[in-house]
Amino acid sequence: MSAQANFFDQVTQYFTEAAKFTTYPEGLLEQIRVCNSVYRFDFPLRRTGGKIEVIRAWRVQHSHHKTPVKGGIRCSPDLYEEEVMALAALMTYKCAIVDVPFGGAKGGIKIEPKDYTAEELERITRRYAHELAKKNFLGPGIDVPAPDYGTGEREMAWIADTYAALNPGQLDALGCVTGKPVTQGGVRGRKEATGRGLYFAVREACNEANQMKGLGLSTGLDGKRIIVQGLGNVGYHAAKFCREGGGILIAIAEREGAITNPNGLNEEEVFQHRKATGSILNFPGSTNIADSAAALELECDILIPAALEGVFTAENAPRIQAKIILEGANGPTTPEADPIFRQKGILVIPDIYGNAGGVTVSYFEWLKNLSHVRFGRLEKRHEMANEMAVLKLIEKTTGKTFTEAERTAFAHGPDEQDLVNSGLEETMITAFHDLLRTQRDHPGIPDLRIAAFVNAIHKVARSYAEMGIFP
Ligand code: NAD
Q1: All structural domains of the chain
Q2: How do residues 262-307 score in pLDDT, each as one tens digit?
Q3: Cβ of 230 below 6 Å from ligand 1
Q4: What's the number of CA atoms in the CB half-sphere (13 Å) around residue 158?
Q5: Four-residue CA torsion sign, 143, 148, 151, 153
Q6: Which pTM does this prediction carry?
Q7: Could you list the active site residues?
């Protein structure tokens, strides 16, 4: 069985380990752990040349303790049921950890998007949305998908449009999916949110002087050497924000191989090079590494897996030299690799906390769709006027005159992007300190992942208690 084949079992293993630090009855833990609904379906696609192909797809709703349920849609040729179930379960725990009021879900279509034209992908996505709507598996108060591996803003726009067409006049229709383009009801900052959230998470960890001392590292992100696997949405943005925050991107690994440069790479330049040549290899000034996975074993301070699950196993974990692993992907570390990382003293910032920035900002997008108003629209001018008044008062009392640049920097009033980023930052910082507190309060908890699962179990259990299902 491949690492992916038992992904749901792996999540269950983490859950079971964490459950030992709680005192809930077995039946309640079982209810929290299982997937509430698993919907698998097939539909036909007439390809451009006329051939009929059967497309297999899923939507899994892991937990109805809160509704709507929420989670991305993955397109991958290797996709199968337990993978979608695992990802849906992780969504439940993730939402609980960052206090986003959704149950977890996940969807998937078993295709390699690169093998289809844009027109075919549109037909597949619209049909997928239609099938979900038919079974009441889609809607702003029911189930709200988002992008994941192999999908992005374009697919989310197709889903929103399909749902709106099926529900004419439904005022909140756009809230049926998040990760949409801004022009189609999206929110500024969603596309980069997962990467930005990862940056906030690792920055917070690096600011913990004691933790850093234990790892033999200086406090702060400045000068830390970073390797990223996967230059897609999550990897690109995590690399960008960590580099802008003072880190040095020394290697990037993609499907076709890896490149390294100890003096630092720029993710945008590498992205443009890949777009132009079809590969990250032969990027000017860098050294090629033919075996992409070997790049993860290079010496570095922060290693960011941001491609797929099952990357770290008992086989390669002993060779990992990073001090910190920042999990951008879902499930990159198998339960066999985790104890090896603990023993090596590697700090793992787990997926269910680290990559929760995406769902956090998706929540903001959903709120925007339901309120039908752009964040900041009502208060921006008002706040700007207040800030201007403060500046004038300072000028009057001190005799100092601010330059125009200083005025604009201070008194601009928050716009949507400012508010979204600030809400995300607050969420990631608060959740990080919750994890540290849980670890401190339970000396037996071995790492942040188990602390995160413990926090998630408590929050979901509390929900059931509030419903009267559990005293
Ligand atoms: P994406 O499709 O935008 O990018 C994935 C990248 O990984 C691609 O560039 C792909 O070529 C690369 N890749 C695939 N196999 C690889 C390999 N063996 N080695 C190196 N690179 C490889 O996907 P994404 O949205 O960035 O998602 C990546 C991961 O992050 C997934 O595990 C996903 O579940 C998780 N995630 C995504 C979001 C989100 O908001 N998109 C949120 C939370 C978690």
Answers
A1: 37-183 (3.40.50.10860), 187-379+414-471 (3.40.50.720)
A2: 999 999 999 999 999 999 999 999 999 999 999 999 999 999 999 9
A3: yes
A4: 20
A5: positive
A6: 0.95
A7: 106
